[in-house]
Amino acid sequence: MAHGHDHGHHGHSHAPSADADRRWLTIALLLIVAFMVVEVVVGLIASSLALLSDAAHMLTDAGAIGLALVAASLAARPPSRRFTFGLGRAEILAAQANGATLLVLAGVLAIESLRRLFEPPEVEGGLVIVVGVLGALVNVASAWALSRSERRGLNVEGAMAHVLTDLYGSIAAVIAGVLIVTTGFEQADGIAALLVSALMVRSGWRLLRDSGLILLEGTPKDIDIDEVGNALARAEGVVEVHDLHVWEVTSGFPALAAHVLVREGDDCHGRRRELELLLHDRFEISHTTLQVDHQHPDRLLTLEP
After folding, report:
1. Tens digit of pLDDT for each residue in 86-135?
2. Is residue 103 classed exposed, middle or buried when 0-12, 13-18 and 19+ CB atoms within 10 A define those classes?
3. 220-303: same fold as 12-215?
4. Do 101 and 117 touch, CB atoms closer than 8 A?
5. What pLDDT sits at residue 49?
6. Whether 18 contacts 151, CB under 8 Å
7. CA distance 79 to 211
8. What is the CATH number of domain 12-215?
9. Three-state SS across the chain?
């Protein structure tokens, strides 16, 4: 006789931390938008391309955080008839979009910085230093706001990756500005931009890889499927475990499904509860669907050669 059972949380537990996430994301967004407006105004007055391009970069940061905010709002919605797991995966899609835009931006920045290496433009070193320092401060404040977010999922990480690469960009700009002012080494600007684009590729690739793993229903990185299978198979009364699947619905929400056979006459419900407790305590998997069946004597006969 088969007993299917679904045990675990269904997305509601994310609500309080999701509210906190949205609050900190909003603070980071406001900081970045305010500074971006200042940069555009000063850039136009000083007719500085460096400032305007940095403002454009800030715009992509604002877009990344805005996307993360929308995804966090969707993820906070309770499960519905159509989306029985809720919309947690919206955060994974946002992380993937943020990873992809980082790679595109890295390519654009690399091409521009190579052009600057061979034809260094006249760079206002002093102005670059001032704005670089201010930009770095704003990015540090934004990164701090994002780090306050309780649920360090891929969604917040995606927004954070944009802000951090911008922070590195500001620091690189300051160093380049100092070099230009002190030594007249005009190529410093291009070299700094190349280093930043390399960092962007690294962050973008990591986001794409991790979000892809979740979207393709891969086993979460911190769970060893063999260890889980062996733990279930060695549990008292268990004869066989098959059709074992472990995946992540969204960041920090692992799920497991398996078909378990126990000895004939054994207490199916009791064994199932023991296995659920084992999975929760040892592997921190609380969303489990275990189908526990009695081993059939006929089945043993068919296994004989």
Report:
1. 888 998 999 999 999 999 988 988 888 888 788 776 667 777 788 788 88
2. middle
3. no
4. no
5. 65
6. yes
7. 21
8. 1.20.1510.10
9. CCEEEEECCCCHHHHHHHHHHHHHHHHHHHHHHHHHHHHHHHHHHCCCHHHHHHHHHHHHHHHHHHHHHHHHHHHCCCCCCCCCCCCCHHHHHHHHHHHHHHHHHHHHHHHHHHHHHHCCCCCCHHHHHHHHHHHHHHHHHHHHHHHCCCCCCHHHHHHHHHHHHHHHHHHHHHHHHHHHHHHCCCCHHHHHHHHHHHHHHHHHHHHHHHHHHHHCCCCCCCCCHHHHHHHHHHCCCEEEEEEEEEEEEECCEEEEEEEEEECCCCCHHHHHHHHHHHHHHHHCCCEEEEEEEECCHHHHHHHCC
Sign of the alpha-carbon torsion through 77, 78, 79, 82: negative
Q: Is the dihedral of CA 46, 126, 177, 140 positive or negative?
A: negative
Phi-psi region of 4 (alpha: psi -120 to 50; beta: other; left: phi over 0): beta
Beta-bridge mates of residue 5: 290
Could you give the CA distance from residue 23 to residue 74 in angstroms, rounded to a whole number?
14
List, for residues 68-77, the tens digit of each pLDDT value.
889 888 888 9
* Residue pair 207/105 in contact by the 8 Å Cβ criterion: no
Q: Global pTM? A: 0.78
**With helix as H, strand as E and coil as C, how does 213-244 read?**
HHHCCCCCCCCCHHHHHHHHHHCCCEEEEEEE
* In the chain, where the domains are located: 12-215, 220-303
Contact between 297 and 264 (Cβ < 8 Å): yes
Q: What is the CATH number of domain 220-303?
A: 3.30.300.30
**Of 151, 186, 159, nearest in space to 70 by CA:** 159
